[in-house]
Design brief:
This protein is of the alpha/beta class and about 250 residues long. It contains seven helices and ten strands.
Length: about 250
């Protein structure tokens, strides 16, 4: 079952050169509803990944508190899945072995994990590649495997840090559609980081707009598109207007 995320007065300061503090993220308040697909967009250095890593429990906040389902986050949670920009598959394991690894480590039922793995592999078109090694796959196929691996443990929260940014446009749009299909089938709360405004608008219920120097959350934009969403939405005038509105919020330097 999906859980909400509460980010309360959270900021991050790093030690800079000459021991001068660098404010990477100003105090931020944000609430994600259970089962919501929420994206953050903004220029490099605005704190998007910093915020995601704090939600993941990989980085402690300098101020404030983060709660998932009412539980304060101080370390990584087994109920939270993460997909990074680069597919972090172990090269000595097959696709299927990579996908099942988190379930094995987490002590979850391998019977259920195998069932979900085969189901998701079929959905993303990787059934025939399940016994191949990562080096034998294209970048898009590796990223599909990474998404399946995150989903097999059926996390309540899924954090995605620019997972499609290294892919060509065609593969990127294909994976966006597959991601929405998987999310619709088994809803979970998603925090999605991207530089691509159209991607954020297509996937999300709401989009948070950030700016840099220092990083801050400037606006939250509701996406008035129904679900399920289909590829033809990308060519509709309403969609272009939504994307243009978000771009205006970010400003000319994104």
């Amino acid at each position: 079952m999906a859980r909400g995320i509460a980010i309360e007065d959270v900021s991050k300061t790093y030690d800079g050169s000459r021991n001068e503090p660098v404010l990477a993220l100003t105090p931020t308040d944000l609430t994600l509803r259970p089962g919501e697909f929420f994206s953050l967009v903004g220029p490099s250095g605005c704190g998007k990944s910093t915020l995601l890593n704090m939600v993941a429990g990989l980085l402690p906040p300098s101020t404030g508190v983060i709660r998932i389902g009412g539980e304060e986050i101080t370390q990584p949670q087994r109920s939270t899945g993460i997909v990074f920009q680069n597919a972090t598959l172990l090269r000595w394991l097959t696709v299927r072995e990579n996908i099942l690894l988190p379930a094995k480590i987490g002590g979850k039922s391998l019977v259920e994990a195998r069932r979900l793995a085969e189901h998701y592999l079929d959905i993303v078109g990787l059934s025939d590649a399940a016994d191949r090694y990562p080096a034998e796959l294209s970048g898009g196929m590796q990223q599909r495997a990474s998404i399946v691996r995150a989903l097999v443990s059926d996390p309540e929260v899924l954090l995605m840090d620019e997972p499609f940014s290294a892919l060509d446009e065609f593969t990127r749009e294909t994976l966006q559609d597959e991601m929405l299909r998987l999310w619709t089938e088994r809803p979970k709360t998603v925090l999605f980081i991207t530089h691509n405004i159209a991607e954020a608008a297509y996937l999300s219920d709401r989009v948070g707009v950030m700016s840099a120097h220092p990083g801050r959350l400037d606006a939250i934009v509701e996406i008035p598109l129904g679900r399920p969403r289909t590829p033809d939405i990308r060519s509709e005038s309403t969609f272009f207007e939504i994307v243009a509105g978000i771009r205006t919020q970010i400003g000319p330097h994104s």
